[in-house]
Amino acid sequence: MGTKQFKGSPMEADLARADSLAREIFSDVANKWAFLIIEFLGDRTLRFSELRKEVEGISHKMLTQNLRMLERNGLVERNVHPTVPPRVEYTLTEAGQALRMTVDGMCGWTRRYLGHIEDSRRRFDA
Amino acid sequence: MGTKQFKGSPMEADLARADSLAREIFSDVANKWAFLIIEFLGDRTLRFSELRKEVEGISHKMLTQNLRMLERNGLVERNVHPTVPPRVEYTLTEAGQALRMTVDGMCGWTRRYLGHIEDSRRRFDA
DNA sequence: CGGTATCCCTGCAGATACTG
DNA sequence: CAGTATCTGCAGGGATACCG
Known about the structure:
Two copies of one chain form a homodimer.
Chain A: H1 12-29, H2 32-41, E1 46-47, H3 48-54, H4 60-72, E2 76-81, E3 87-92, H5 94-125
Antiparallel strand pairs in A: 1-3, 2-3
The structure holds a DNA duplex.
Keywords (chains A, B): DNA-binding, Transcription, Transcription regulation
Protein name (chains A, B): DNA-binding HxlR family transcriptional regulator
Pfam family, one (chains A, B): HxlR
């Protein structure tokens, strides 16, 4: 993500580390399920089963996997109520909310360019 | 995304169509390679081989596939110079530039929260 | 040089079943 | 209800080779 200007400097090793880490985070988070979860979660608190309904088409497994990943990266907070049956609630952390801003931006972008995109596709497919 | 408030209205069918299309676009574009291509392309014009060098780790196949997808959705413009050997250049369209803004946002987000994320991971992995 | 086609294999993701 | 584990398939994606 643009650290080329430091090539050869003493900081290079550190920056390379940061860069590869950034790359890794990017790979983790820049996937459609993660984005959809972040978007649907918004500023609400939702249970696992609620989230599963909101994010249509996501499987039980994908939802848990992505929630674990997001939790590990500190984007969602997981709250377990020790009741029976268990009640597990998820909310976005501050970092999660911050990322949500950019995901929102992408949603807005999709709405704004929907027409352009449809047209472009028709032209391309011909 | 988020048209639930119109449920039952006459517009519902259209919105459902728009929504599922938006979903599809989201799935296309919200993947790490697309993001990295958009980010590295920036406001430059790059050849296929240059792009391949910049986006480290991307295979020939993934690069072509993603470039086709981005072209189809009207995010990149492809310019073929009929010389020999061929020279093919890629640039972001206006829609592509607009999306780049949000991708930039995500890059900024990554830099800002890198520390938080590392910490969170260490805690989680323990 | 850039694109397409083919082969092949890993690993993702769905389905199912079981626990606390 | 939420999570984990196991099995299985099928497709995503790498490697390779060949065209324009």
